[in-house]
Amino acid sequence: MNPRRTVFYLSDRTGITAEVLGKTLLTQFPTVEFRKRVIPFIDTPDKANATLEEINGTARQESQRPIVISTLINDEVRWIIEKSDALCLDLFEGFIGKLEGELGLQSSHALGLTHGIGNATAYERRMGAVNYALGHDDGISASHYTEADVILIGVSRSGKTPTCLYLAMQYGILAANCPLTADDFDRMALPKGLVPHRARLYGLTISAERLTKIRNERRPNSQYAAIETCRSEIRAAEDLFQRLNIPYIDTSTMSIEEIAVTVLHKTGMASKL
Fold it and tell me: Could you tell me which residues come within 8 angstroms of residue 110 by beta carbon, excluding any fewer than 6 positions away?
């Protein structure tokens, strides 16, 4: 059996930064099974002490030290957590001091600057982008495609919707998506609503084996999820991409984050952020 370790992701805010960076580090140890525990908003000594007790309780119960990955700004809170019977990796502590020395400045030690709404304009842009993604999901509406930064196309369940939402939430990108269907493949042509917007299109493809697994989770043992159906649709979609010179990527082994960043860079949108 693979070794198991409990990982605590701690933060005085949402915990998103700790979890994203921590998971990136832990992917380098694929033989270890990590059990995740996320504890956000540890912004007082009382909350820190309660978390300390939980960490130490886990260490006693599992007879091994948990791993703590944190982004804690408050020194008092961080010192309490560092007393725990755990391997403590505070991502801010490891870099803030070096940056202060290099810049000759003290950091603000302000909470919530990463994911808060300190920048109201940026926040409103992200929320507007989320609403746009939801309103233009799965080809629901083509009425405002002229506003889109990108329109993702591909077969059903190739990762279009979650990628659009991630682009919206993280980067404020106006991302729409539209599925390619059997009718499109029969005609070997784009849906009519997409034709005027070819310059905004970006294709997602996926392996048939991965697609049939995903579709079986939604509709088990259906024709929709059959490997033959998946192979036929993927082959037709890729033929269409190539015939119309639409750029596309294979999402089979990519996370949503990786798909989104790849789209950003391949389309040139990253340079405009």
Answer: 73
How many Å apart are CA 61 and CA 50, to the nearest integer?
17
> What are the CA-CA distances from residue 193 to residues 138, 178, 188 (Å)?
12, 10, 15
Task: Spell out the residues 6+ positions from residue 94 whose beta carbon is closer than 8 angstroms to its own.
Answer: none
Structural domains of the chain ordered from first start:
4-103 (3.40.50), 120-272 (3.40.50)
Cα–Cα distance for residue pair 57/34, rounded to 1 Å: 17
% pLDDT > 70, the chain:
96
Backbone angles phi, psi at 39, to 5 degrees: -125, 105
Q: Please, what is the Cα angle at 69 between 66 and 73, to 5 degrees?
A: 135
Cβ-contact 70, 47 below 8 angstroms = no
Q: What is the pLDDT of residues 226-270, one digit of tens each?
A: 999 999 999 999 999 999 999 999 999 999 999 999 999 999 998
DSSP assignment of 194-205: GGGGGGGEEEEE
Residue 54 near residue 152, CB atoms below 8 Å: no
Give the integer Cα–Cα distance in Å for 49 and 34.
24
Contact in structure between 234 and 206 (CB atoms under 8 Å): yes
- Please tell me the distance from the alpha carbon of residue 93 to that of residue 218, in angstroms, as a whole number: 43
* Closest C-alpha to 110, from 122, 96, 123: 96
The whole model's pTM is what?
A: 0.70
Dihedral sign for Cα atoms in the order 134, 137, 139, 142: positive
